[in-house]
């Protein structure tokens, strides 16, 4: 990005010259929205969540059996739990369940006998005494042995190889996940094209530090900031994806619930002002570049995954432009021949709470290897009670896989055994880090872009 | 090209008005490309420094480039004060761009005045915020305005279809006539149709629901500035005002309102000016709104009274139209209102109904509209209270 701009860096430190150039924005080569499975039509919450697990297991079982055969030989015996014989080495495919003592349970909270105070939210709920249990359609069995109890989370479909012991437990000698899904053909552009990924704008937080950085971000993308070279590079940004948390957590407090009605009659929810600010920012962006807006944890949409798009009536100014697209969380789309898949970060942060993995990038990679975007749903992560199919199963390998609202920027290019090439990006929280990501679609290179103003104290 | 003019302008802004002049603010104020604005600022700084006229100028620069941070080569964009410029330049491995960001007389402690200046100027120019930018996007075209109202009416239509399972939806759709600016005839039919189906609660419920979204829709559609939407907006506002002013408006009043439109439409000749037609439409829909809101409280007895009150309702309605218009500062409509009053005064025969108490009250006062409205509300409240007292608690 910067290298191309360097030659004309000082061009604007001069008296006004002739007509300054205007660069046309690179046209969208191809865009197709593939998030149809994440859009909910008629919603009915009358079903139980058990169907999600059975559908998930049924869908992923064939792939896992194939993987198991590849790993432990073609002649490995694949058994269901009901067919297990003691001492026989075999492979079992099932859903994992991690029994955690610290896991917040609503039953414990309301149990009057215990007189328990509700547990405060902890950063991590893991404990050495956690146990892993493998469940399939009919039975469950405790796992022990060569398996990392702390790392795995509930809801993962995996295949374990081992034998049943006489005490009824299964001694694991090895396990495998679904691994990367089959690759997609590459149709990427031949010239430089960028996509800007940003998340966690955090509007309405009441603190103005990040506001100048947000304005600088908008100015760079719309081509107002920078010398000519940089503006030309900015014109190659073909799309902006805002991955969630456009509103700050501060807008979430609802006095209307806690306070008496006469106190809150004339007050407005904090999110109203924040959404107005968001509308103005989106309007500035939309007049210049196509924008995809994904909802996040603190945004005014439903709580359970998949989150539905924000309603366009909230953004009256910006929604008059066709360049604004309000999309679901998770979001999947083909941008200029490159398949993007990403979430606003709720899946990764939930796994973070229930697993010993600390690194967001590591967790992101792990979900890709497990073949499922959010295995912890519906156990600890809110989810719609699907019963026909689980849309979060990864059936094709995306080219760019991102998650929003990470504590810091990280990226990694993953190469798969079947020729998959995935760029993993953890998009940092903009309100905290003032950093966004630029992905070059030509070669899947990713560069962070930081903005800063100046304050009282000078940092180096 | 007036080369020196911009220098004088900048001089005036910075020294005389003591403003913070950012490149964006200058670009919008002078109507020039952002790059030209940046160059103008630089030129001004250079000349002023050369002249050394003693006026203190503080300049902030924008610098962008590559910086090795946390193991990544990250592209950094920063606004820095002049004294920190060189330090920042040395930190960056390659400089991608540097230009003047702003000029101001005062020393800035932090960058919030810069943000505020830009925020204000962008807010006032929201609709052409990319006009002076260096990048022009062909795809960023505002959607055609008919698309939006059409989408909204189709939304209403679809929601009506969801709500009316077995009830004919023509009254409901016709009830939305004004919003889509349909022909007044259709409204006429719609009102009649609504009277016909008055007994059935379903259409009224649907109307209520769809009307509930109608104000929302009309306010949402107020943004794209077209005549239709201005009317809708006014109608929405007027209807809202009316609903607020008469929070306790009971059935007789609403029924009056509902009947008024029919009469108003039936006698368009009386109001030749086109302005009155719009209020006619507006008040019809307002009437529909009010009627729908209180639809549950409807009793069958009221219907008999309603017919009798038809003509005076029309007159009163017309009066109110005029009052509304005078409220909205339409000067030309004020003179016609006294004439209308005379008209109403001259046709007392149909007035003999129960509403005579209300009629004289409204007739006597010949001042501006508000008093009359307020009086009417009070009276009708009393009237209703008495009635309900007589009828006992309905439960």
From TrEMBL, chain A:
<protein>
    <recommendedName>
        <fullName>DNA polymerase delta subunit 2</fullName>
    </recommendedName>
</protein>
<dbReference type="Pfam" id="PF18018">
    <property type="entry name" value="DNA_pol_D_N"/>
</dbReference>
<comment type="similarity">
    <text>Belongs to the DNA polymerase delta/II small subunit family.</text>
</comment>
<dbReference type="InterPro" id="IPR040663">
    <property type="entry name" value="DNA_pol_D_N"/>
</dbReference>
<feature type="domain" description="DNA polymerase delta subunit OB-fold">
    <location>
        <begin position="48"/>
        <end position="173"/>
    </location>
</feature>
<dbReference type="GO" id="GO:0043625">
    <property type="term" value="C:delta DNA polymerase complex"/>
</dbReference>
<keyword id="KW-0228">DNA excision</keyword>
<keyword id="KW-0227">DNA damage</keyword>
<keyword id="KW-0539">Nucleus</keyword>
<dbReference type="InterPro" id="IPR024826">
    <property type="entry name" value="DNA_pol_delta/II_ssu"/>
</dbReference>
<dbReference type="InterPro" id="IPR007185">
    <property type="entry name" value="DNA_pol_a/d/e_bsu"/>
</dbReference>
<dbReference type="GO" id="GO:0006281">
    <property type="term" value="P:DNA repair"/>
</dbReference>
<dbReference type="GO" id="GO:0003677">
    <property type="term" value="F:DNA binding"/>
</dbReference>
<keyword id="KW-0235">DNA replication</keyword>
<feature type="domain" description="DNA polymerase alpha/delta/epsilon subunit B">
    <location>
        <begin position="195"/>
        <end position="409"/>
    </location>
</feature>
<dbReference type="GO" id="GO:0006271">
    <property type="term" value="P:DNA strand elongation involved in DNA replication"/>
</dbReference>
<dbReference type="InterPro" id="IPR041863">
    <property type="entry name" value="PolD2_C"/>
</dbReference>
<keyword id="KW-0234">DNA repair</keyword>
<dbReference type="Pfam" id="PF04042">
    <property type="entry name" value="DNA_pol_E_B"/>
</dbReference>
<feature type="region of interest" description="Disordered">
    <location>
        <begin position="1"/>
        <end position="20"/>
    </location>
</feature>
TrEMBL record, chain B:
<dbReference type="InterPro" id="IPR041913">
    <property type="entry name" value="POLD3_sf"/>
</dbReference>
<dbReference type="GO" id="GO:0006271">
    <property type="term" value="P:DNA strand elongation involved in DNA replication"/>
</dbReference>
<feature type="region of interest" description="Disordered">
    <location>
        <begin position="152"/>
        <end position="178"/>
    </location>
</feature>
<dbReference type="GO" id="GO:1904161">
    <property type="term" value="P:DNA synthesis involved in UV-damage excision repair"/>
</dbReference>
<feature type="compositionally biased region" description="Basic and acidic residues">
    <location>
        <begin position="278"/>
        <end position="314"/>
    </location>
</feature>
<dbReference type="GO" id="GO:0003887">
    <property type="term" value="F:DNA-directed DNA polymerase activity"/>
</dbReference>
<keyword id="KW-0227">DNA damage</keyword>
<dbReference type="InterPro" id="IPR019038">
    <property type="entry name" value="POLD3"/>
</dbReference>
<feature type="compositionally biased region" description="Basic residues">
    <location>
        <begin position="369"/>
        <end position="378"/>
    </location>
</feature>
<dbReference type="Pfam" id="PF09507">
    <property type="entry name" value="CDC27"/>
</dbReference>
<keyword id="KW-0234">DNA repair</keyword>
<feature type="region of interest" description="Disordered">
    <location>
        <begin position="250"/>
        <end position="378"/>
    </location>
</feature>
<keyword id="KW-0539">Nucleus</keyword>
<dbReference type="GO" id="GO:0006297">
    <property type="term" value="P:nucleotide-excision repair, DNA gap filling"/>
</dbReference>
<dbReference type="GO" id="GO:0005737">
    <property type="term" value="C:cytoplasm"/>
</dbReference>
<feature type="compositionally biased region" description="Polar residues">
    <location>
        <begin position="152"/>
        <end position="172"/>
    </location>
</feature>
<keyword id="KW-0235">DNA replication</keyword>
<feature type="region of interest" description="Disordered">
    <location>
        <begin position="199"/>
        <end position="231"/>
    </location>
</feature>
<dbReference type="GO" id="GO:0043625">
    <property type="term" value="C:delta DNA polymerase complex"/>
</dbReference>
<feature type="compositionally biased region" description="Polar residues">
    <location>
        <begin position="218"/>
        <end position="231"/>
    </location>
</feature>
<keyword id="KW-0228">DNA excision</keyword>
<protein>
    <recommendedName>
        <fullName>DNA polymerase delta subunit 3</fullName>
    </recommendedName>
</protein>
């Amino acid at each position: 990005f910067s290298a191309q701009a360097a030659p004309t860096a000082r061009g604007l430190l001069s008296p006004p010259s002739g007509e300054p150039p205007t660069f046309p924005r690179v046209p969208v080569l191809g865009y197709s929205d593939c998030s149809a499975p994440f859009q909910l039509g008629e919603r009915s919450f009358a079903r139980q969540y058990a169907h999600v697990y059975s559908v998930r297991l049924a869908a992923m079982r064939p792939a896992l059996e194939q993987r198991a055969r590849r790993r432990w030989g073609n002649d490995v015996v694949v058994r269901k739990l009901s067919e297990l014989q003691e001492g026989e080495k075999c492979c079992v495919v099932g859903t994992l369940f991690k029994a955690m003592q610290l896991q917040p349970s609503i039953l414990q909270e309301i149990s009057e006998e215990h007189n328990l105070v509700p547990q405060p939210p902890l950063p991590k709920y893991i404990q050495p005494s956690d146990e892993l249990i493998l469940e399939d359609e009919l039975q469950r069995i405790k796992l022990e042995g060569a398996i990392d109890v702390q790392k795995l989370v509930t809801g993962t479909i995996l295949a374990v190889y081992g034998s049943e012991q006489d005490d009824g437990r299964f001694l694991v000698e090895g396990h495998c996940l679904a691994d990367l899904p089959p690759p997609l053909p590459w149709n990427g552009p031949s010239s430089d094209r960028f996509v800007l990924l940003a998340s966690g704008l955090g509007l309405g937080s009441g603190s103005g530090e990040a506001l100048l950085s947000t304005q600088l971000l908008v100015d760079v993308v719309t081509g107002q900031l920078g010398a000519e070279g940089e503006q030309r590079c900015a014109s190659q940004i073909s799309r902006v994806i805002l991955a969630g948390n456009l509103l700050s957590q501060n807008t979430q407090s609802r006095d209307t619930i806690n306070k008496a009605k006469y106190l809150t009659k004339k007050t407005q929810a904090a999110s109203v002002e924040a959404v107005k600010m968001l509308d103005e920012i989106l309007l500035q962006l939309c007049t210049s570049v196509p924008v995809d807006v994904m909802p996040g944890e603190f945004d005014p949409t439903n709580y359970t995954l998949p989150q539905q798009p924000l309603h366009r009536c909230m953004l009256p100014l910006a929604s008059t432009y066709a360049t604004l697209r309000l999309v679901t969380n998770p979001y999947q789309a083909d941008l200029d021949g490159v398949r993007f898949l990403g979430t606003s970060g709720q899946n990764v942060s939930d796994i973070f709470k229930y697993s010993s993995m600390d690194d967001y990038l590591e967790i992101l990679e792990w979900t890709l290897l497990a073949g499922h975007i959010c295995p912890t749903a519906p156990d600890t992560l809110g989810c719609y009670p699907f019963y026909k199919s689980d849309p979060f199963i990864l059936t094709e390998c995306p080219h760019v896989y991102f998650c929003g609202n990470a504590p810091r920027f990280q990226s990694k290019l993953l190469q798969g055994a079947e020729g998959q090439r995935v760029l993993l990006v953890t998009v940092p929280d903009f309100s905290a880090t003032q950093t966004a990501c630029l992905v070059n679609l030509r070669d899947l290179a990713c560069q962070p872009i930081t903005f800063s103003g100046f304050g009282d104290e000078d940092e180096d | 090209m007036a080369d020196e003019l911009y220098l004088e302008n900048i001089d005036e802004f910075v020294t005389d008005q003591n403003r913070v002049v950012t490149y964006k603010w200058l670009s919008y104020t002078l109507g020039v490309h952002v790059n030209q604005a940046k160059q103008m600022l630089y030129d001004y700084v250079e000349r002023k420094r050369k002249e050394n006229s003693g006026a203190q100028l503080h300049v902030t620069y924008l610098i962008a480039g590559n910086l090795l941070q946390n193991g990544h080569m990250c592209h950094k964009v920063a606004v820095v004060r002049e004294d920190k410029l060189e330090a920042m330049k040395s930190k960056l491995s390659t400089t991608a761009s540097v230009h003047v960001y702003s000029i101001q007389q005062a020393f800035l402690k932090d960058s919030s005045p810069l943000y505020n200046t830009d925020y204000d100027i962008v807010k006032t120019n929201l609709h052409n915020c990319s006009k002076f930018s260096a990048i022009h996007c062909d795809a960023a075209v505002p959607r055609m305005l008919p698309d939006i109202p059409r989408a909204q009416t189709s939304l209403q239509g679809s929601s009506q279809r969801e709500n009316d399972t077995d009830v004919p939806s023509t009254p409901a759709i016709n009830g939305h006539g004004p919003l889509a600016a349909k022909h007044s005839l259709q409204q006429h039919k719609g009102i009649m149709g609504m009277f016909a189906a008055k007994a059935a609660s379903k259409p009224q419920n649907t109307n209520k629901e769809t009307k509930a979204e109608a104000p929302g829709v009309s306010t949402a559609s107020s943004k794209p500035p077209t005549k239709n939407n201005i009317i809708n907006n006014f109608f929405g506002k007027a209807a809202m005002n009316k609903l607020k002013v008469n929070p306790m408006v009971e059935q007789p009043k609403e029924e009056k309102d509902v009947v008024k439109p029919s009469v108003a439409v039936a006698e368009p000749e009386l109001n030749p000016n086109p302005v009155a037609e719009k209020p006619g439409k507006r008040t019809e829909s307002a009437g529909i709104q009010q009627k729908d809101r209180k639809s549950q409280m409807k009793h069958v007895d009221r219907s008999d009274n309603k017919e009798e009150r038809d003509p005076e309702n029309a007159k009163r309605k017309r009066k109110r139209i005029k009052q509304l218009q005078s409220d909205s500062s339409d000067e030309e409509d004020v003179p016609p209102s006294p004439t209308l009053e005379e008209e109403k005064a001259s046709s007392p025969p149909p007035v003999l109904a129960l509403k005579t108490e209300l009629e004289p009250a409204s007739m006597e006062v010949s001042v501006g509209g508000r008093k009359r409205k307020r009086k009417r509300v009070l009276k009708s409240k009393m009237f209703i209270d008495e009635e309900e007292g007589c009828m006992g608690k309905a439960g």
